[in-house]
């Protein structure tokens, strides 16, 4: 619980005024949140405040907040006002959190560095010539720059953990199905989870755990969300865990990144077991085939008639829909829609999409086997430190950056990124991946790493 709630919100708003003109983490800032802070301060004095009383939280632009814009950082939804709250928003408000604004992201979550936003790129607080990561880059940057206490993002293939790594903060992707996606404008329904980002250190990990306890748990409005969250965040192992190291994951990284993370693993002093994943080369193609297929299906509703910017009804249906989508979708969104549409065609579906589902099942079984031998799997979160804005020149270069994070989404496993050190002043993230529903051990080990 925040000690001085009104002072905290004013500090955060001042930080936004001083810093966000350069960082560009926010799309919308809710200056009226000071009124809510006053109300919560009164509840605190009366002993009636919730678990997150006074905690200032930013929210990724694809999570609906009633009466606020949910833009997905796209021209297609630039003027869309959410008519209801996402489940996670209702749960935050019920525990007296303060939502300070909506953050920038890659358009419709299509990207790994928040440069595909239709509005502007978000810059890394550690070096403003570099990216903040993506697609939840604005959320991570808002935490790293001290503009909020915590942030909500969505993670389809690393979109919470990637920016957490680049910005030097903590980012958790929970077990699939533990946090409701009702009110999330999702990218790929079988892969995506909402997760929290908090600062760096043991206190930040504890706040992340507390936030997950608040936003997680069953929701009848999301058929996949039917798991209790309470026991998952508590300690479940009496003895130190065994850490697994997948050799191919470390080999895929810059040497300096691998060495930084391996030093952090060694400092834990736990038993380490080497593992081998020959299927590493299939991770990226499997993820992108499944994600793009689901994404193309989800995007069909943005036709300019029911959702999105209005189509020109004076033209034929085909012309008006084509014009609305051409004018209001960015290049990366179009690329993924086209790929997903092609992959799902009857003529090629078995060759690509069905094959990818088979590989996903095999990978899930392989990681179940790994996690029968070890308690956690440690790796770098990203293969490099944050790159300079515009440095990733081709889509394939950008896609390849997700090689270490997509596994947790394909298999539904929980994974956290915590800061493991710096290289040339730029943060390096360590990823800890655990068994399903064992967030407690993931958090516990992450906290131990902060002690070393």
How would you characterize the overall build of this protein?
The protein is α/β, with parallel strands linked by helices. The protein has a domain at 5-229: Amidase signature (AS) enzymes (Alpha-Beta Complex). Helix content is 40%, strand content 15%. It is built from 15 helices and 13 strands. It has an eleven-stranded mixed beta sheet, sandwiched between helices. The chain has a two-stranded antiparallel ribbon with strand order 4-5. Helix 6 (202-215) packs antiparallel against helix 15 (439-451). The protein is globular and about 70 Å long.
SSE arrangement:
Elements lengths: L4 H19 L2 E4 L3 H13 L10 E5 L26 H8 L3 E6 L19 E2 L2 E5 L5 H8 L5 E6 L5 H7 L2 E4 L19 E6 L3 H14 L27 E4 H5 L3 H14 L3 E4 L7 H16 L18 H12 L2 H13 L5 H25 L2 E5 L14 H6 L5 H6 L3 E9 L2 E9 L4 H13 L1
Parallel strand pairs: 2-3, 2-6, 9-10, 9-11
Antiparallel strand pairs: 1-3, 4-5, 6-8, 7-8, 7-12, 11-13, 12-13
Helix pairs in contact: 1-2, 4-5, 6-15, 9-11, 9-12
Features:
alpha/beta; 11-stranded mixed beta sheet; 452 residues; single chain; two-stranded antiparallel ribbon; 40% helix; Amidase signature (AS) enzymes
Could you name the CATH topology of the domain at 5-229? Amidase signature (AS) enzymes
Q: How would you spell out the order of helices and strands?
A: HEHEHEEEHEHEEHEHHEHHHHEHHEEH
User: Biggest sheet: strands side by side, in what order?
Assistant: 1-3-2-6-8-7-12-13-11-9-10
Counted beta strands: 13
Largest sheet: 11 strands, mixed
């Amino acid at each position: 619980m925040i000690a001085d709630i009104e002072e905290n919100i004013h500090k955060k708003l001042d930080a936004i005024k001083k810093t966000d003109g350069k960082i560009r983490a926010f799309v919308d800032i809710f200056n009226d949140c000071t009124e809510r802070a006053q109300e919560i301060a009164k509840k605190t004095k009366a002993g009636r405040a919730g678990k997150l009383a006074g905690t200032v939280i930013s929210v990724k632009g694809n999570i609906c907040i009633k009466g606020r814009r949910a833009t997905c950082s796209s021209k297609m939804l630039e003027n869309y006002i959410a008519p209801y709250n996402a489940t996670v928003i209702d749960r935050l408000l019920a525990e007296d959190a303060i939502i300070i604004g909506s953050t920038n992201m890659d358009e419709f979550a299509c990207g790994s560095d928040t440069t595909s936003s239709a509005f502007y790129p978000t810059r890394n607080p550690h070096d403003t010539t570099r990216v903040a990561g993506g697609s939840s880059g604005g959320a991570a940057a808002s935490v790293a720059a001290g503009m909020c206490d915590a942030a909500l993002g969505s993670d389809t293939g690393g979109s919470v953990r990637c920016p957490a790594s680049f910005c030097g903060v903590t980012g958790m992707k929970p077990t699939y199905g533990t946090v409701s996606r009702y009110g999330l404008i999702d990218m790929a329904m079988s892969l995506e989870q909402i997760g929290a980002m908090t600062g760096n250190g043991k206190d930040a990990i504890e706040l992340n755990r507390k936030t997950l306890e608040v936003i997680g748990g069953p929701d009848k409005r999301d058929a996949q969300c039917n798991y209790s969250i309470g026991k998952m965040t508590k300690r479940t192992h009496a003895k130190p865990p065994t850490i697994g190291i997948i050799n191919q994951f470390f080999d895929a990284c810059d040497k300096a990144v691998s060495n930084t993370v391996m030093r952090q693993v060694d400092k834990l002093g736990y038993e380490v077991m080497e593992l081998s994943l020959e299927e590493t080369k299939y991770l990226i193609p499997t993820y992108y085939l499944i994600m793009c297929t689901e994404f193309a299906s989800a995007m069909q509703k943005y036709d300019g008639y029911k959702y999105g910017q209005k189509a020109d009804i004076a033209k034929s249906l085909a012309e008006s829909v084509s014009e609305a989508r051409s004018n209001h979708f960015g290049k990366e969104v179009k690329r993924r829609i086209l790929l997903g549409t092609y992959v799902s065609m009857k003529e090629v579906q078995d060759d690509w999409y069905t094959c990818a589902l088979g590989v996903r099942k095999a990978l899930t079984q392989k990681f179940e086997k790994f996690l029968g031998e070890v308690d956690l799997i440690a790796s770098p979160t990203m293969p490099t430190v944050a790159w300079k804005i515009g440095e990733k020149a081709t889509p394939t270069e950008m896609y390849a950056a997700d090689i270490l994070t997509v596994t947790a989404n394909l298999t539904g496993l929980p994974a956290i990124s915590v800061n493991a050190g710096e290289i040339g002043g730029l943060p390096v993230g360590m990823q800890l991946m655990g068994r399903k529903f064992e967030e407690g051990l993931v958090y516990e080990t992450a906290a131990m790493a902060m002690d070393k």
